[in-house]
Specification:
205 residues; alpha+beta; Alpha-D-Glucose-1,6-Bisphosphate, Chain A, domain 4; 9-stranded antiparallel sheet; globular; START-like_dom_sf; COQ10_START; ubiquinone binding; Coenzyme Q-binding protein COQ10 START domain-containing protein
Length: 205
């Protein structure tokens, strides 16, 4: 399947727009942004320079059917339909006190973007997971910049309260599990992951 430059540009630009709300963070560490009540929306953003290629990162993140094998909180992941540009999957997540299933629609633009949205579930009003991959160091082809964003809102006020306690840790574990799986499949990284600022920090080559 051939994806036009317009299509790629549309997805990448929309991704940049969705990430821009995180660029104002003054701290370099990734964190949740707590919005004023009664809005229960939570958002986590991260950016890393990693020692793996864009293609390698894309292949692992887009392999939704294997999530249950390496994501600690994913109990089951079943792909229902799949094309080169999108897929639909049922996932079951479980970490105390939550054990729920939901359906995810995933949009794919290889090797630039993986965008997953929850479309059916009792746990979330909405859940958006966004991965964007861009070139890394000029002197190191086996590198890329990974932008990772999770935005969600629980249906339950109880679950929303719990998110303040442990979801920062869960999001970090999720991000780290993907990078670890890339290393398992393709070999050791060419460099240690480096956290980048979320304000379009230039990458020194």
């Amino acid at each position: 399947m051939i994806i036009s430059k317009y299509c790629i540009g549309h997805y990448v630009n929309s991704c940049k727009n969705s990430l821009c709300q995180c660029h104002g963070l003054k701290q370099q560490r990734r964190t949740f942004l707590n919005f004023p009540k009664p809005n229960r929306t939570r958002e986590y953003c991260g950016r890393q320079l990693v020692g793996h290629s864009m293609d390698q990162m894309f292949e692992v993140v887009s392999d939704v059917g294997s999530y249950y094998k390496f994501l600690p909180w994913c109990k089951k992941s079943i792909v229902l339909t799949s094309t080169p540009s999108n897929l639909k999957a049922d996932l079951i997540i479980g970490f105390p006190p939550i054990n729920e299933s939901y359906t995810s629609h995933v949009s794919l633009v290889k090797p630039y973007l993986v965008k997953a949205e929850c479309v059916d579930g009792k746990l979330f009003h909405h859940l958006l997971t966004l991965w964007r991959f861009s070139p890394g160091l000029k002197r190191e082809q086996q590198s890329c910049v990974v932008d990772f964003q999770v935005t969600f809102e629980f249906r339950s006020a109880f679950h929303s309260h719990l998110s303040n306690l442990f979801f920062d840790q869960v999001a970090r574990q999720m991000e780290g599990a993907f990078i670890k799986e890339v290393g398992r499949r393709y070999g050791a990284a060419t460099m240690q992951p480096r956290n980048l600022r979320l304000n379009n920090q230039a990458i020194k080559s």
